Amino acid sequence: MYTPIKRKKTREVKIGNIGVGGNNPIRVQSMTSTKTEDVEATVKQILELKEAGCEIVRVAVPSRKHVESIKKIVEQINNVIPIVADVHFDYKIAIMVSEVGVSKVRINPGNIGGFQKVREVISACKLNGIPIRIGVNSGSLEKDLIDKYNGVTADALVESAIRWIDFFDKEGFLDIVISVKSSIVPQMIEAYRKLSEKVDFPLHLGVTEAGTPKTGIIKSAIGIGSLLYDGIGDTFRVSLTAEPVEEVKVAWEILKALGIRSRGVDIIACPTCGRTKIDLISLAEKVEKALENEKLPIKVAVMGCEVNGPGEASIADVGIAAGKNQGVIFRKGVPIKRLKEEELLNGLLEEIEKIKEEMGYK
Ligand code: SF4
């Protein structure tokens, strides 16, 4: 047993029909990697992301000509999942997209061209009833703050965020989500911790330019995971140089690892040791592949020996404990059938089907 994470209380903001902050679950986000002008490919990818467990999708709107594309995307997606328009530099794009049915606009106020232009974006979003994400980012921090802090620091990121929150407050617009991202993990952790002490707006977590899965997963798990463990964060995106569906899978693994939310199978596998007598690594990979799209929220163990396996994995609902050329299938640590090595995978999958029937899970 362990003490569950206590989340810091934040205000609720509605992104389309999805609530973020307040009592809502921590939301998983991703961003499309297709060309926005390729409406068909972008819609396809958005639907794949939704199927993988994504709850909010961001789409880049790099130029004014892309506004028509995102309009078509929003129409075709038809509220299946909220679409967030990602806008940089050109405040007119932010104003234009606010009118085409997107559920939120993300801007970095620091790169949109000054207070008056941000004011006009706020007016447009207010008129169209959609929230704004204030993205403060180590890459687009205001020059005066870089000078004041002698470079990009966590305090500089926080001061920028507070400056913009105060500005939005004066404009009478607090339908906002805040991010203070950095590519430096300790810096983003410090910035979010300090910011969460000062404000109660929903926080969008992320490590920018986290990299390829090899490093990006580690950076995101440490950066985002540390904050979530502190109870900080209401939504997040794992940024990877990879297919965006991978971002969503990793995001769910972070939530599952922290015991915050469950989705699909949680696989426990032993690291193997001198007692292992079968090719357990390949068996564990086959189990993972076979259960990749299984939505049943159970723990499945793949253990290398019968001596310690069932006991070590007794928290698992079902699992394999391998022996020499054979193994047992166990449920909650209790062996229920013995099978040859080549039958173990199917034996496990059959048992999972039985669990589904018992749970009335379709
Ligand atoms: S479960 Fe058995 S094989 Fe796997 S690491 Fe533990 S002792 Fe070794």
Verbal overview:
The protein has about 350 residues and is an alpha/beta fold. The protein folds into two domains: about 15-255, Alpha-Beta Barrel (TIM Barrel), CATH 3.20.20; about 265-360, Sulfite Reductase Hemoprotein, domain 1. The strands form three sheets. Strands 8-7-6-5-4-3-10-9 form an eight-stranded parallel β-sheet. A five-stranded mixed β-sheet has the order 11-12-13-14-15. The chain has twelve helices and 15 strands. Helix 1 runs parallel beside helix 9 (about 245-255) and helix 8 (about 215-230) runs parallel beside helix 9. The protein has helices at about 40-50, 65-75, 90-95, 115-130, 145-150, 155-170, 185-200, 215-230, 245-255, 280-290, 310, 345-360, and strands spanning about 15, 20, 25-30, 55-60, 85, 105, 130-135, 175-180, 205, 235, 265-270, 300-305, 320, 325-330, 335-340. It is elongated, with a radius of gyration of 23 Å. The structure holds iron/sulfur cluster. Iron/sulfur cluster binds near residues 272 and 308. The site of iron/sulfur cluster has 12 residues, from helix 11.
Strands, total number: 15
List unreliable stretches of 5+ residues.
Answer: none
CATH architecture of the largest domain: Alpha-Beta Barrel
Report the structural category: alpha/beta
Short recap of the structure:
40% of the residues lie in helices and 19% in strands. It has helices at 39-52, 66-77, 91-97, 115-128, 143-148, 154-170, 185-198, 213-229, 244-257, 280-290, 309-312, 344-359, and strands at residues 13-15, 18-20, 27-31, 56-60, 83-87, 104-107, 132-137, 176-181, 204-205, 235-237, 266-269, 299-303, 318-322, 326-331, 334-340.
